[in-house]
Amino acid sequence: MSMDEPGRPPPPPAPSFSDTGLDPAGRDIPRLTSALIVFSGLAASGRSTSQAALIEVARTAFGKRVATVENLIRFAYEDAPNLPAITQYELAWDKQTYAAGARRALLDNPDLLQIELLQRAETVEVAVKAATTGTLVFTSLYALSPEQAHLQIINMMSDSSRSELTAALSKVPVVVLHHHRELPEAGSKEIPRPIITMRAWLPPAYPPSFRESLRAKVSKVIFGDRGVNWPVQ
Prior knowledge:
- With 233 residues, the protein is α/β, with parallel strands linked by helices.
- It has one domain: P-loop containing nucleotide triphosphate hydrolases (Rossmann fold), CATH 3.40.50.
- The chain is 30% helix and 19% strand.
- It is built from seven helices and seven strands, in the order βαββααβαβααββα.
- The chain has helices spanning 47-62, 91-94, 98-106, 121-131, 146-156, 162-169, 208-218; strands at 35-41, 66-70, 86-90, 112-115, 136-142, 174-181, 194-201.
- The protein has a seven-stranded mixed sheet, sandwiched between helices.
- Helix 3 (98-106) packs parallel to helix 4.
- The termini are far apart.
């Protein structure tokens, strides 16, 4: 759990949904349960802002209990008696790995678990198991495209667990929100919003009508929505 560090400035307030480049239909993403939402892109592409904004939507619009696992806490969330609690675990203070922090956070039985970064096989394993057993999982990684993010997750899985984990992921929605920024116009002082490409891999066992409804809720435009299993690479 986070603790105040002397001399360290407090984190800024969490951004609002309107501060992101997400389509308005993206506000329905926190409705999902048992799903893996991956925020991909390069550094400073807006991944953290999008996650924080959707966490606020999850709490305020859908009443979800949230736990975050971060190296250093990035944003402060509103603390109000009518909102569900949010628990933020800071790894730099406790000198834990993301996997260990996520396991600890899951003891709080959150509806939404944010794991700041996918780095190693053990982190992927914790994220996948949580996402396939009733928890909405937000996480991020560095990638150049949604497809590369998809393959990175598979490639990070250990040889011994890859078959089990890919089979589990074929039963839940996996959505990649890939962020990139356009170069600002010459002389402009404004920071451009990220452009976000959304791609979803939906379980083939879902009825077509449900898959269609889910696609409409996640975004107006989702690519790769044929409902195929994740391939084992």
